[in-house]
Amino acid sequence: MPLGVNARHAPGTPGAPQAPATVFAEDFENAGETPIFLEDYVGAPPLNETYTADPPWLDHGQCNGIILDQSGADQPDCPAVLKSIAHALGQVGGTNPPTNHVVAAYTNWVPPGADRVEFRTERPIPIAKPNRYITFAVDVAAVNCDQAAPLLKFYLTGNGSDIPTFTTPINPCTDPNSKPYPGGNELRAGAFAGNRAVLFNDSQLGIKMVNGQGEWFGNDHAFDNIRILDATPQLDKAFSPATVDKGGTSTLTMTVTNTSELAAKNDFSFADDLPAGVKVAANANASTTCGNGTVSATAGGASVALDGGDLAAGEKSCTVTVNVTAGKAGTYVNRPEAITTVGLNPPESATLTVKKKGATAVGTATGSGGLLSGNVVQVPVDMPVNACGNSVNVIGLLNPATGNVCVNG
Q1: Could you tell me which residue ranges the Chaplin domain spans (predicted)?
Q2: Contact 140, 189 (CB under 8 A)
Q3: pLDDT digits (tens, 9 = 90+) for 349-408
Q4: Who contacts 337 (Cβ-Cβ below 8 Å, separation ≥6)?
Q5: Pairing, β 350-355 against β 243-245
Q6: Over pLDDT 70: what percentage of the chain?
Q7: What is the rounded CA–CA span in Å between residue 215 and residue 54?
Q8: CB 145, CB 220: distance < 8 Å
Q9: Which residue, among 306, 288, 314, 344, has the nearest Cα to 196 in the 3D structure?
Q10: Do strands 359-367 and 376-380 pair parallel, antiparallel, or not at all (unpaired)?
Q11: Residue 343 contacts residue 302 (beta carbons within 8 Å)
């Protein structure tokens, strides 16, 4: 089911990872009750994806490359435990276990050879946006784990070299994300995601899964629910304190929050143009916790940038901080359109309120007509303020403003 890379995570939860968005998913449920071979299977519309593999993994006499479920017909000369594996993976994926379809790979007695392709897409999968972090997820089950275990490696494919989305192959027999299931033969199953995400710049991609295990004795498994994930981190920004005196200092914090699979993300960047009137403070104190990233924030300058930022595998978030200031009172809004990002979802607006020393209220007037239209109002602390509806009165010195929305700061 191709979904495209259009989803972005909601800003506003810095430091709290959200789930990655699914770009493409294949659950092999476009099959029926009769087993079908992987190379004959056609995925669901609209992409109608097809798949292939290297010859050893399409050797059906070895019970490799066969799509089946527990409740459907048997595959001749293949062990019944394959149906138990399909049932277990149905539990992992949250579907109806008896009718859950999987791709079986049992290697009866012929060694398939190491690092042979066990699964590969044949048609390109469109990517709606460039500069996104892409990784994968898959459900895998294995039996006979006291023998040689499968070692599954996922790659993104395209016009250039294949790009790995892992640092360690998936071993469903030993990975802590797997657990025992009923069915005999030391059956273990689990859901797995890549521990490395790739900053992908092309408009389409493919995926392939390679099995690093070359033995036949063991290496008995099945896979299901292959997914391509958009694991692009979320950028958030905030001023602290959000209100300062004119000429005072506020710390702008940019938080990069990883997605929930916590894969490593390398080489993201952003450039933020500060609102007009806001500048980097003389004591900028610019710093970052984003790996090898470099912060650019020149004292007196009007922008903040990060280049080459990193999140390590397992890391939830990192930050960029810099002190900023403004020489005039007013309300300054740092909007999303002022920031450019590579490998990051853009943030929502952040607001800095600057008041004159001794003032306690800052009003922002918008709308049409009236004495105060479009102006910012500062009121000394010893002057009472009445702001409501369409008028602002300051001890009767100002006439009512017509057609304005007034907000006390």
Answers
A1: 368-408
A2: yes
A3: 999 999 998 776 444 433 333 333 334 444 443 333 444 343 344 333 333 333 332 333
A4: none
A5: parallel
A6: 85
A7: 15
A8: no
A9: 314
A10: antiparallel
A11: no
Q: How many CB atoms lie within 10 A of CB 203?
A: 13
Cβ neighbours of 313 (radius 10 Å): 16
Q: How far apart are CA 240 and CA 272, in angstroms?
A: 17
Which residues fall within 8 angstroms of residue 220, CB to CB, at 6 or more apart?
Answer: 81, 105, 106, 107, 142, 143, 144, 147, 150, 185
C-alpha angle 350/354/357, rounded to 5°?
160
CATH topology of domain 234-355: Immunoglobulin-like (2.60.40)
Question: Distances in Å between the alpha carbon of 133 and those of 6, 54, 386?
Answer: 13, 28, 51
Extents of the domains making up the chain: 21-230, 234-355, 359-407
Name the strand (E) or helix (H) holding 125: strand 125-126
What are the E-state strand segments in 243-343? 243-245, 249-257, 265-273, 278-280, 287-288, 294-296, 303-311, 317-326, 330-334, 339-342
**DSSP state, 88?**
H
Written as six digits, the tokens of 403 are 């057609």
* Domain 21-230: top CATH class: mainly beta
Please give the model's pTM, rounded to 2 decimal places: 0.79
Contact 250, 240 (CB under 8 A): yes
What is the token pair recorded at 82?
């394959």
